[in-house]
């Protein structure tokens, strides 16, 4: 596979972007794997903390470009596409394989309540589970690319933004992005549970880049990236030895200890807020105010949640979790309605009554030659093999009592069907509603295999993994399509990145498990409670007192909000981005205020900076700094993990009297 891909003759206008000149090179793959490993540790760290991770495609391309300047021969734009594709495939495995949600949820099982003891996978078992779900989405991506990128020419705003950045960095003509891209798409927030950070800022940052920005990135990029990385890393290390640094009782010790209102001045959270953008962080903080400022005290004082506020079972944190679940499901499902309608109407109903499906040109729009595409026989064999081997591995890891093989097979089939919906939604709105898709699969498996909580969680994870991974890879394939990179070269990068990430993610998660309690004070893994909570609800039908009423109220309200937002987006309204995001609002419930407040600061910085400086002059400088903030804490967290494993404790618990410091013995 390391041979150079076949070259083909192209039109003179495309000669500058000819992707046949060695797209798949060893240096591109190695740099992609290096960046991807950093992203993998970073995403696992933040995913276990907040349930919110980032694809970081734009940042991967930017850092890859900066690193390539040290090479004897400059890297081509097509190599950069392969680099960022490999990095994304490597860096997003913590979410795709469920290390931030599924596996912690299985560890929360209670034999008295659930009928089964907690499930803690060994290293080799976790590798087996990862192998079971790591490749299905990769083999699913080529046929999806042909449909949504080539034939339907959907926008995929984040992938388009990355393509624009790469063309600027490598001083290429701007790619043609006038393909079914409506105004307003770039302003939308993207969330993956709920679990992925938004790319709204990425899309907006690159809209106005000009060729001089390439010089800025090379001359000033390293300086900005270096100091922001160092500052974030130093602050992270300081917080390890002095935990109060990341747990400041800004609103007083009483609110910090009794109501979990503290402040974490993490530069990485500020960087995430910059990348998310002000509208998304504003939605998160509105959710935080409603959840932690209104509903939490209401549930506590009304006796609906009599336990300690932070208790996920009897406390108000567990009570508001149900409301957040209702918001996420309603928002995600309503956003899918136009996608489902369009699929049914154009692909099923119109052909059934003898009308055209709306396509006037039946000739293929594919611009790549066959030697640069992924052969269909590879797809067929790959999908068949990943499903059969995945089913066998799941059975070997969890046993017949965990989930029956036929149920796992259905999970893969559902994953394929849900991927079609998720990818189309992502292509049009930059939103991959995997949280809602995962909950659909849980609901279905509660019907076909009732009473089995383990099977419900596992099968839901299998289905969600395919939808999430296919969506992430489709953004990369959109970038490659714009830059004329070889889809086959990207496919190789995806496979290699996924293979390495299985080992890296599993090893990192095992080390975190040994050093910390997961879920625990330092890594609460909030999405684990969402998975387990819904599985228990579908089995027992029991909700905490009065939570059902508030779930219904908020679900109805955010269904209406999501409908308005979807209508505004599809109509190209410039105000669509200011309509609250239901998923981001719900994340404000899931995370304690300390996480949301820091991200709001980042969102405000992003908004003020580009309002005053202007996007024409602002360019990508702020994104470079934000990337350094995020990567700094993510990388230095590995140092903290090693120190914790070696038994090196905190230097001082000064200021931790409120008991909110994750590293303090008091917590």
Short description:
This protein has 667 residues and is mainly α. Helices cover 66% and strands 0% of the residues. It is built from 27 helices and no strands.
SSE succession: HHHHHHHHHHHHHHHHHHHHHHHHHHH
Uncertain parts: 1-21, 179-214
Structure classification: mainly alpha
Beta-strand percentage range: under 5%
Q: List how many beta strands DSSP finds.
A: 0
Distance between the termini: 51 Å
What's the average pLDDT? 78
Cα-based radius of gyration, to the nearest Å? 23 Å
Give the overall form.
globular
Q: Could you explain the architecture of this structure?
A:
This protein is mostly helical. It is built from 27 helices and no strands. The longest helix has 37 residues. It is globular. It starts with 25 loop residues before the first helix and ends in a 22-residue tail after the last helix.
